[in-house]
Design brief:
The complex is a heterodimer of chains A (about 280) and B (about 280).
Chain A (H helix, E strand, L loop, with lengths): L2 E7 L3 E7 L5 E8 L4 H16 L6 E7 L11 E2 L2 H12 L5 E5 L4 E6 L5 E7 L7 H11 L6 H6 L12 H13 L4 H21 L7 E4 L6 H11 L12 H19 L2 H7 L11
Parallel strand pairs in A: 1-4, 4-5, 6-9
Antiparallel strand pairs in A: 1-2, 2-3, 6-7, 7-8
Helix pairs in contact in A: 2-8, 3-5, 3-6, 6-7
Chain B lengths: L1 E7 L3 E8 L4 E8 L4 H16 L6 E7 L11 E2 L2 H12 L5 E5 L4 E6 L5 E7 L7 H11 L6 H5 L13 H13 L4 H23 L5 E4 L6 H11 L3 E2 L7 H15 L21
Helix pairs in contact in B: 2-8, 3-5, 6-7
The chains are: A alpha/beta (about 280), B alpha/beta (about 280).
Chain lengths: ~280, ~280
């Protein structure tokens, strides 16, 4: 079997998607990134191969993306998160024109053309204020697990405002709310609202066009989706596959590139691959 | 006669008692917690117990709070900016610039020869460079907050830290540790970064010597070292650096009492008479 792989090395999770020669998704694998990026990428690749009973050499082309994309030594190419998320979101929802990717540390708003080309983007990469880590810290301070924060927030009757933008300072504010007797649900709703406000501001900067698709790990959080929908006054595209959009996009782009290389002459192929680490196609 | 000052900070609450000769007779420090008024009461009582005096011995109390939180405590409220200016001027009379690095915010204040505030700016939007930042870093590095200065002093070189956000820096530290970088070099890098940010704040109010460094972070010798290295100047750091705001508040209280103001706290109906050394 000749497969292509996309690996999304995120700050919290590393995800991989394996496509067969027909472009069908054959395997998906994920694990926590931890502090050893190379090892996380290696483990995900091995897991993907195990799933389909393939050997690593059956993978003819591998694209890496995510913040650790340069730390995947066995990649053929690295592609920015912007391009990959755009491609992944378009594959999941073909009418996507705007992508909001909410990661653990960074968030980005991307406006794309019909073919998935990135037209405009804005990202928050200086501070964790509009990212998953903000919720993670609030969840920790409230002693609830991350998967339940969304549902809990939806039960709020009287949302407590969180005025801090900084994730670290918000934590102290949350503790103050707890001591003052506010309910966990109300504090969580306040935190969701606060993050949603900043994400909406980010999205507005790229002049969003419908449809808007959410990607990244936070999409599993129903409270966050609702808070965003309320503010953007529109339905948002979300699927259980949304958190795989980066890896999926990388795999799709790896496939496109692989096909293009196969159709070019060997000399041209060598030139195109000059910047790549290795070229399994010429082997 | 005694005058009291209470400074409710985001993380700790400080109280200072001064006598009629403006001598500091007690300094107390308690955790603020969620109830700011109760923290103020606790700090004041700790100081009173330390000085072995009763509440009615205090002629006047000035309270000061933090940022946007007002603390309804004492006979009078004075902003923390003025209190810091007053306190720093009292301990280092030649102070013209104050850098106050507290638990959750950082302030730069420019003052005149009589402790009048000429300009100030503060960062209370982001935890970078505050006590919380160092707390988070200490936790990831497996160190106690008090050890940071000493450990960073052992560094032969300092590692470049590229992030500013506390959350991102935590991740960056984990990466450096995973690559086997020595703890002291990471720490020295952190102190260097924090110093850079604070200097940016100082420049916005105009840097004029002498510079007095106050607040909880001033107890970290690593930050003091990085600041003086980057500024190319010596910094005034008092042993009571954390209490500068409370001392300033107590000095305002002393002035009030000296001018015949009467404390409402203890339902005292008589003026306290002339204060030796007062005007």
């Amino acid at each position: 079997m000749r497969a292509v792989v996309g690996i999304d090395l995120g700050s919290r999770m590393t995800r991989g998607v394996l496509l067969d020669e027909h472009g069908r998704v054959q395997a998906q694998a994920a694990r926590e990134t931890g502090s050893r990026l190379e090892q996380a990428a290696q483990a995900v690749l091995e897991e993907l191969c195990r799933c389909v009973g393939a050997k690593p050499e059956d993978v003819v082309y591998l694209a890496s993306t995510g913040y650790g994309r340069y730390r995947v030594p066995f990649r053929q190419i690295q592609i920015t998160e912007m391009t990959c998320h755009a491609m992944g979101a378009l594959w999941l929802f073909p009418r996507t024109r705007t992508v909001l990717d909410i990661g653990a540390m960074n968030s980005r708003a991307i406006r794309i053309a019909e073919n998935g080309r990135v037209v405009a983007f804005r990202m928050n990469d200086r501070c964790a204020s509009g990212a998953g880590r903000f919720l993670e810290r609030v969840a920790k301070a409230l002693e609830v697990s991350l998967p339940e924060v969304g549902e809990l927030s939806l039960r709020s009757q009287n949302p407590q405002p969180i005025s801090s933008i900084c994730a670290v300072l918000a934590e102290s504010e949350v503790i103050n709310h707890v001591t003052a007797g506010a309910s966990v649900e109300d504090i969580l709703r306040g935190a969701h609202n606060s993050i949603a406000e900043r994400l909406v501001a980010l999205v507005r900067q790229v002049s969003p066009q419908p449809e808007i698709t959410l990607t990244g790990g936070v999409t599993k959080n129903s409270g966050m989706v609702q808070a965003l929908e309320e503010r953007l006054k529109t339905k948002l595209n979300v699927s259980p596959q949304s958190e795989w959009a980066g890896a999926l996009g990388a795999a799709l782009l790896a496939r496109t590139r692989c096909q293009r290389l196969q159709s070019t002459a060997p000399e041209a192929r060598n030139r195109t691959l000059a910047s790549s680490v290795a070229d399994p196609l010429s082997a | 006669m005694l005058a009291a000052g209470v400074d409710v900070g985001s993380t700790t609450t400080k109280a200072a008692l001064i006598d009629e000769n403006k001598r500091v007779v007690a300094l107390a420090l308690v955790d603020t917690g969620a109830n700011v008024v109760r923290a103020a009461e606790r700090a004041l009582h700790t100081a009173l117990t330390q000085a072995k005096v009763e509440e009615w011995d205090v002629a006047y109390t000035v309270g000061t709070g933090y940022g946007r939180y007002r603390v309804p405590f004492g006979d009078l409220q004075v902003t923390e900016i003025s209190c810091h200016a007053k306190g720093a001027n009292f301990i280092f009379p030649a102070t013209r610039t104050i850098l106050d690095m507290g638990g959750q915010d950082t302030k730069a204040i420019r003052v005149g020869p009589d402790a009048e505030v000429k300009d100030f700016c503060m960062n209370d939007k982001c935890a970078a460079g505050t006590g919380r930042f160092l707390e988070a870093a200490a936790e990831v590095l497996g160190l106690k907050l008090e050890e940071l200065g000493e450990v960073s002093a052992r560094a032969k070189k300092s590692l470049k830290i590229t992030n500013v956000c506390t959350v991102f820096v935590e991740q960056e530290i984990v990466m450096h540790l995973a690559r086997g970088c020595p703890v002291e070099e990471i720490l020295a890098g952190l102190h260097w970064t924090i110093a850079g940010r604070s200097i940016g704040l100082l420049r916005r109010v105009g840097l004029e010597s002498e510079i007095t460094f106050t607040g909880g972070v001033a107890r970290n010798s690593g930050v003091v070292r990085a600041l003086s290295e980057r500024l190319g100047a010596r910094l005034n750091v008092a042993p009571e650096s954390q209490h500068i705001g409370a001392i300033g508040a107590a000095l305002f209280a002393w002035e009030r009492a000296a001018h015949g103001a009467v404390s409402q706290r203890n339902n005292q109906s008589r003026a306290l008479g002339p204060v030796p050394g007062g005007n």
